[in-house]
Write a structure and sequence with these properties.
149 residues; alpha+beta; Aldehyde Oxidoreductase, domain 3; 5-stranded antiparallel beta sheet; 30% helix
């Protein structure tokens, strides 16, 4: 994990903690903390999913997380904290795969910045996802192929 004086970036095999991410995003100047929790859902386009497997090129992913935070701070200058944590390994339905938190004095900026951060992560970070289907088949999803939801 890399933690600067205000931001935190992590690629982890172990489960992610909502409480920890919230604590890391907390600051006395905040009027809002927005946390986006990405989870493994039970289907993709109606096809049953039993698990997702994530792999990452960790050093580059952390650099991308830093770039996302820097751009986020440039676009929303009041931001106090940016926290980006992502899982690797095999995750079952319902497990948290990614947590992004943004602390800011105002909620509208916190929401917008958090959305920007997760959307940019999904398209730029060297993190690969393999879908494990209920029928036993698997398929890799390429970087940037994720829809904006």
């Amino acid at each position: 994990m890399l933690t600067t004086t205000t931001d935190s970036f992590r690629i982890a095999f172990a489960p992610l903690s909502l409480d920890e991410v919230y604590r890391l995003a907390d600051d006395s100047a905040n009027g809002a903390i927005v946390v986006m929790s990405g989870m493994v859902r039970d289907n993709t386009e109606g096809k049953p999913v039993v698990a997702l497997e994530y792999q990452a090129y960790e050093p580059m992913a952390i650099e991308v997380f830093k770039q996302i935070a820097a751009q986020t701070r440039q676009d929303w200058s009041d931001i106090t904290r940016v926290v980006i944590h992502h899982r690797t390994g095999r995750l079952s339905v319902g497990e948290i795969s990614v947590l992004v938190a943004v602390g800011c004095p105002h909620r509208s900026e916190a929401f917008a910045a958090c959305k920007y951060a997760i959307d940019t992560l999904k398209h730029n970070a060297p993190i690969w996802k393999k879908e494990h289907w209920a029928d036993g088949s698997t398929s890799w999803v390429s970087i940037g192929a994720c829809e904006e939801e």
